[in-house]
Amino acid sequence: MTSIPLLITSPHPCSYLDDKLAQTAFIDPSFRLNTATYSLLITHGFRRSGDDVYRPQCAQCSQCVPVRLPVAQFKPNRNQKRCLQKNRKTTVIIKPAVFEQAHYDLYLRYQNHRHAEGNMANTSPDEYINFLGSSWCNTQFIEFFCADELAAVAIVDRLDDALSAVYTFFDPNFSSSSLGVYAVLWQIQYAQNQGLEWLYLGFWIANCRKMNYKDQYHPLQGFIDSEWDFLKKS
Questions:
Q1: Peptide bond before 96: cis, by omega within 30 degrees of 0?
Q2: At what angle do helices 125-132 and 101-114 cross, to 10 degrees?
Q3: Of the candidates 22, 58, 124, 234, which lies 20 to 30 Å from 95 by C-alpha distance?
Q4: Opening angle at CA 205, ends 126 and 123, nearest 5
């Protein structure tokens, strides 16, 4: 890989594991990024948030494992098949990554329902789009409609040989539709149809309930000790 300047944060409280300190390595913001460069960086465990690209760099912990799914090998389990059946009438529209009031309003409803104790529940319009969008990446906003009503939005980065699942939020009124699961299943099918090889799912953390659901998608690979290898089923 071409030499890319990295910066490392000071230790700070971990967002996922109690009583842990975290450090983050991130690409120097002055470095010019594009989709091709990020397509390479993500294979080395990096992740995008807004225009920033980062990965955990913790001295005493390695529980944040970047994971990806080889989409051609995926077979849905029983619960995932039920989710697909439940959403057989859900319709999808692919949009560019630009601010839309309807998306923002849905995002706030989701945050206030699921994460009311966090600061994301008070996100401003600029903070919202700067968190999910990017000035340099090929990002798409995927709308999911149930009964002609906007029910969920998934943010997806289109890379050279992969999709990267950035974030998904949904209307709490449609919680029974399992739209978080359906959004992942839709992305797998979309990647298959586009002839892409991988779906990157961010970080898997075995001891964090918010992050360990990803091991329900098999076969899952983890980036451990600078190599990708298949994870054992839990």
A1: no
A2: 90
A3: 124
A4: 15
Burial class of 75 by CB neighbour count within 10 A (0 to 12, 13 to 18, 19+): exposed
Q: How far apart are CA 218 and CA 43, in angstroms?
A: 18
Residue pair 38/171 in contact (Cβ under 8 Å)? The answer is no
| pLDDT tens over the chain, length 234 residues | 568 999 999 999 998 999 899 999 999 999 999 999 999 999 999 999 999 999 999 988 999 999 999 999 999 999 999 999 999 999 999 999 999 999 999 999 999 998 766 667 689 999 999 999 999 999 999 999 999 999 999 999 999 999 999 999 999 999 999 999 999 999 999 999 999 999 999 999 998 888 989 999 999 999 999 999 999 876
How would DSSP label each residue in 5-25? -EEEPPPEE-SSSTT-EE-EE
Nearest to 123 by CA among 135, 112, 139, 138: 112
In a 10 Å sphere around its CB, with 0-12 CB exposed, 13-18 middle and 19+ buried, how is residue 59 labelled?
exposed
Tokens of 233: 């089923």
Diameter of the chain measured on Cα atoms = 50
Task: Read off φ and ψ for residue 31, nearest 5 degrees.
Answer: -80, 130
